[in-house]
Design a protein that fits this description.
One of its GO terms (biological process) is Mo-molybdopterin cofactor biosynthetic process. Homohexamer; trimer of dimers. GO terms for molecular function: cyclic pyranopterin monophosphate synthase activity. This is Cyclic pyranopterin monophosphate synthase. By secondary structure, this protein is α+β, with helices and mostly antiparallel strands. The chain has one domain: Alpha-Beta Plaits, CATH 3.30.70. About 30% of the residues lie in helices and about 30% in strands. It contains four helices and five strands. Strand 4 and strand 5 form a beta hairpin. Helix 2 packs antiparallel against helix 4. The longest helix is centred in the C-terminal third of the chain and has 19 residues. The radius of gyration is 17 Å and the shape is elongated.
């Protein structure tokens, strides 16, 4: 790991990193977000009993769309041609959902920000669609779980 901030030039000004000389490699990243909610809310999510419709399908689509739009949202991110985005939503307890977003491509820069954006927006969509019945929903632990490929190699949260 480098201790240098790559998005700052020698004068400390923000700039978009030049990746034109980097090799094209397969790159994958997975990020998560955890939602805490009332058990009754989670039951409605699972059973499809919320007034706004299919919460899980809408959140998946929102996460995929967000991953594709990351460079429009985060100023110094490169626009990427993602080849795959998946958003999985898992029940991990009677009051917790886990959102996992995995992004892949063959390219010159990583997809960590796309995975983090996808997981975050899917979680925010879940919140939006459930807030009518539970305003106390908490989104937490938005984090990168792993990345593969590129010059810096593979990284996993469990091995950090």
């Amino acid at each position: 790991m480098s201790d240098k901030l790559t998005h700052l030039d020698h004068q400390g000004h923000a700039h978009m990193v030049d990746v034109s000389d980097k090799d094209i490699t397969k790159r994958t990243a997975t990020a998560q977000a955890i939602l805490l909610m009332q058990p009754a809310t989670l039951k409605k999510v699972i059973e499809g009993g919320l007034p706004k419709g299919d919460v899980l399908a809408t959140a998946r689509i929102a996460g995929i769309q967000a991953a594709k739009k990351t460079s429009d949202l985060i100023p110094l991110c490169h626009p990427l041609m993602l080849t795959k985005v998946t958003v999985d939503i898992n029940v991990i307890s009677d009051c917790e959902l886990e959102v996992l977003c995995t992004c892949s491509l063959s390219g010159k820069t990583g997809v960590e920000m796309e995975a983090l954006t996808g997981a975050s927006i899917a979680a925010l969509t879940l919140y939006d669609m459930c807030k009518a019945v539970d305003k106390g929903i908490v989104i937490q632990n938005v984090s990168l779980l792993e990345k593969k490929g590129g010059k810096s190699g593979d990284w996993s949260k469990g091995n950090a």
